[in-house]
Write a structure and sequence with these properties.
Strand 2, helix 1 and strand 3 form a beta-alpha-beta unit. With 400 residues, the chain is α/β, with parallel strands linked by helices. The radius of gyration is 35 Å and the shape is elongated. Helix 2 packs parallel to helix 3. The strands form four sheets. It has a six-stranded mixed sheet, sandwiched between helices. Strands 10-11-9-12-13 form a five-stranded mixed sheet. It has 13 helices and 15 strands. The N terminus is likely disordered.
């Protein structure tokens, strides 16, 4: 059984954090001798065989250096070295491994070197030499970890904007490319929602030096309002884009409307600041040949069109008009379903539904035919299972 020895030297603080060294040797005398040499500088963990050493390395991330013998039961030093250097975990794979050997063990030293041993120490080495070797390797490990943390921080900075907590534009486009590819392979849909933001303050309040900070607050409000599986970015100074998997245009418009409600809240850009949003929407199903960047460009154009016309509409279902690049204002024929039509009518926007009436009537014809059949059965005194008297009464208003 491995044992932890964390006794602090006389006069040292019991809470002092010291680098942890793992000693793997089946000889208790050897372990005790090495521990006696280095216990004033390091925290010691001892194990009696290679298998116990391997388990300690797997589970104890605080181990900074391993001192291992070659000849041990269960798993010897060679196998332990091979396991460490072939690990898929970077922390383990790069762990410094010092092999303890005798002066006449040249063949073993050569084999251990080929397996990735970091250094060699004679079992008869004096205390200053052992401590010096360990100090160097502990510093090496610490430097390597600090470098890894710095690289992770830089990578995070390249993918996430710390001011808004949204993705950087370059990383957003990269992820959208993957999302679009997945959607094409699996016959699903993707929607991009572009939101252009305008801010205003009542009265004579000054914007001097405040606009950028206010826009960042809006970005944070947007980041907090989208789901973990959605993607969001700041695409321009006062513009944001959100990508989401789509299960229908009505759902996308509801999502866009919810984003508008969140961003136009009086607190989104700070107290007393009014937020106006102009929104454009595009879906992959409109044009499957478009790339991720092209889809984003279309959503941005639609949002710009909404802003130019001072429209509260969520612009959708339009295409780029020929060589001029001007948006075609005519709605796409396939951009309307029953749910969306009913939502627009309830919102007082029936005029937007009129161009789609032929297609909508075709969609509901089967439902009207079923209602007429039920009405005819009711007139004949026939009762259909599952149809209540209330339903019969409501069917009276179905036209023939």
């Amino acid at each position: 059984m491995p044992t932890d020895k964390t006794d602090a030297p006389p006069g040292a603080s019991a809470n002092a954090v010291r680098p942890r060294i793992l000693i793997a040797d089946d000889s208790r005398i050897v372990r005790a001798s090495i521990t006696q040499h280095i216990r004033d500088r390091f925290d010691i963990r001892e194990v009696a065989d290679g298998e116990a050493a391997w388990q300690a390395i797997l589970l104890d991330a605080s181990i900074r250096v391993v001192l291992t013998d070659i000849t041990m039961p269960k798993v010897d030093g060679f196998d332990l070295l091979a396991r460490v250097r072939s690990s898929k975990v970077q922390r383990i794979r790069e762990l410094p491994m010092i092999v303890m050997s005798g002066a006449d063990e040249a063949a073993e030293r050569e084999r251990a070197s080929k397996l990735g041993a970091t250094d060699f120490i004679s079992k008869s080495a004096d205390a200053p030499e052992v401590v010096s070797r360990l100090d160097v390797l502990v510093r090496l490990t610490s430097t390597r970890e600090q470098l890894a943390e710095t690289q992770a921080t830089l990578e995070s900075a390249r993918t996430v904007d710390p001011d808004t907590e949204l993705l950087s534009l370059a990383f957003f486009d990269k992820q959208i490319g993957k999302l679009v590819s997945y959607a094409r392979r699996n016959l699903t849909d993707v929607a991009l929602i572009c939101v252009r933001v305008e801010l205003s303050v009542p009265g004579t309040a000054s914007w001097e030096g405040e606009l950028e900070q206010r826009i960042k607050l809006v970005g944070r409000a947007l980041a907090a309002s989208i789901r973990l599986e959605d993607l969001g970015t700041r695409s321009d100074r006062t513009e944001f884009v959100v990508a989401t998997q789509s299960n229908g245009l009505a759902g996308v418009l509801q999502f866009a409307a919810r984003l508008r409600k969140v961003l136009e809240n009086v607190e989104a850009a700070g107290p007393g600041v009014e937020v106006w949003t102009c929104i454009g929407v595009v879906t992959l199903s409109e044009e499957l040949r478009r790339s991720a960047e092209e889809l984003r460009a279309v959503a941005q154009k639609r949002a710009a069109q909404a802003q130019a016309s001072r429209s509260r509409r969520i612009m959708l279902g339009t295409g780029d008009g020929g060589a001029s690049g001007v948006l075609d204002a005519k709605p796409a024929e396939a951009a309307m379903d029953i749910g969306l039509a009913l939502a627009l009518i309830r919102a007082g926007r029936a005029g937007e539904v009129v161009p789609h009436l032929p297609g909508l009537v075709e969609q509901i014809n089967p439902l009207l035919r079923l209602a007429k059949q039920q009405k005819d059965l009711m007139a004949q005194g026939t009762t259909t299972p599952g149809i209540t008297e209330g339903t019969h009464a409501e069917l009276q208003g179905v036209p023939r």
